[in-house]
Amino acid sequence: MKPFVVIRKHENQDNVALQRLIREFVMSGAWEAFVSCLFREITLQLIVLGWALMFIFFGIPLYMCALAIPCVILLIWFTVYGSYYNKSTELALRPSKLCWVAEIYEPLLAMNAKAQAANIERCYTDRPGPEVQQELGKMRKNIIGTISCRNHLAMDNAGFITRLAVSPKYGLTPVTEYLIQRVLQYASDSQLYAIETVTSECDQDVREIYLKIGFNIRQVYHKQIVGAIKRRCKPF
């Protein structure tokens, strides 16, 4: 028995599982963001600033001022993880009128989640197909992904993808593609002329999936921690 996925509308009894899923997905990117921040110019600036403050204003011996290095690293760690935790909580509790979930059906004794996800070959809409009805009694189901869509705030007759989350245990592919394709199907049925979304620089894998499906990069934002915001636009 090979696992398969059902993409269906969100139901009220899914709320607890979705909140846990969204938190896990958002927090899974915190470590990569932390490592990325360590090699930014702002890190060196904070170390030099802390070193100077400790030596000039507090009279701490120069060699002891090296404590500024671990202090800055801890500060960045708490800042990054705190911001990711706040973001995960906000997304998990944010209501969404139009939401779909990805529910995997896998053998009862399946152990390796990523191996099961790699073997997914079938995807159904709303409910399992008739050809797999006899297998349902030997399988367990679990929500492993979600995606939401709302009206675009800046364009008429357009949609905006929000709250895309996939369980880190199962990996992004192919569940992420199935979820995005479901939104595109909804957009086609609703005669929306455009669908947009936003990804951060740490979401490289998700961005590659969007590009693979056919999305184009329309606008790139480069926002410095200290200084002005730089923008570079790229048309479709």
Task: Walk me through the topology.
Layout: E1 4-9, H1 15-27, H2 30-38, H3 41-56, H4 68-93, E2 99-107, H5 113-118, E3 122-125, E4 139-151, E5 158-166, H6 175-189, E6 194-196, H7 204-213, E7 219-223, E8 229-233
Parallel strand pairs: 1-3, 5-6
Antiparallel strand pairs: 1-2, 2-4, 4-5, 7-8
Helix pairs in contact: 1-4, 2-4, 3-4, 6-7
Determine the fraction of residues in helical runs and give it as a percent range.
Answer: 40-55%
Counting DSSP H or I runs of 4 or more residues, the number of helices is 7
Largest sheet: 6 strands, mixed
Uncertain runs: 225-236
* Level-2 CATH architecture of the largest domain: 3-Layer(aba) Sandwich
CATH hierarchy class name of the largest domain: Alpha Beta
CATH topology of the largest domain: Aminopeptidase
The secondary-structure class comes to alpha/beta
Q: How many runs of DSSP E, i.e. beta strands?
A: 8
How large is the share of residues in beta strands?
Answer: 15-25%
If strands are numbered along the chain, what order do they take across the biggest sheet? 3-1-2-4-5-6
Query: Mean pLDDT, as a whole number?
Result: 83
Number of structurally distinct domains:
2
N/C terminus separation? 43 Å
Q: What is the 3D form?
A: elongated
The CATH superfamily name of the largest domain is Gcn5-related N-acetyltransferase (GNAT)
Helices and strands, in order, run as EHHHHEHEEEHEHEE
InterPro entries: Acyl_CoA_acyltransferase, GNAT_dom, NAT_camello-type
Keywords: Membrane, Transferase, Transmembrane, Transmembrane helix
Organism: Anopheles coluzzii (African malaria mosquito)
GO molecular function, one term: N-acetyltransferase activity
